[in-house]
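Input sequence (189 aa), recorded before submission:
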Amino acid sequence: MRKSHAGNSVARAPLSLTASIVLLLALGAPAASASGTASSSTVAWRADSLAITVPTSADLGSGTTGGTISASLGTVTVVDTRVGLLAAWTAIASATDFTTGSGSSAETITKDRFAYWSGPVTASTGSITRTPGQPTAAQQVSLSTPVTAFSAQKLLFDTSTSWAPTLVVTIPASAVAGSYTGVITHSVA
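Predicted structure, token format:
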């Protein structure tokens, strides 16, 4: 059974089960039924989730060889509806190389030329300790390997956490002109 409390929900089944066990221990086992009638029961189970939503695309703008481009990727949101005390999660950001044309070396901007910073929380709900991976531009990190974008540990109720990460691209001096495409992935576990 789930009980609503100011828009949040909490599982009550474990508490009820505990109370039932204590009651059985205090009163002793119930007497056996003389009729032996069977009954069936149904238990509704809600699959609680941990989900992340990200923008479907982002235009980072344009720049010149040897220069840098800095642009927001849009809002990333993690929603945690899992039941449990002190449930934690970590959001990870990773990148592929960006390419244009046939993807030759002059037509590739490698992922080590991309820097990422999560920035602070932009919107949130619920009681949770939230920690940005890189709260300011001064703490930006290379996407040459996956990085922690955000992490959190909630107390009990449903929560959401949003941020608007920034990507900084250093364009190689040898890069040819073109529209480069690649993938920035956010995942949560």
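Checked by second reader. The mean pLDDT is 82.
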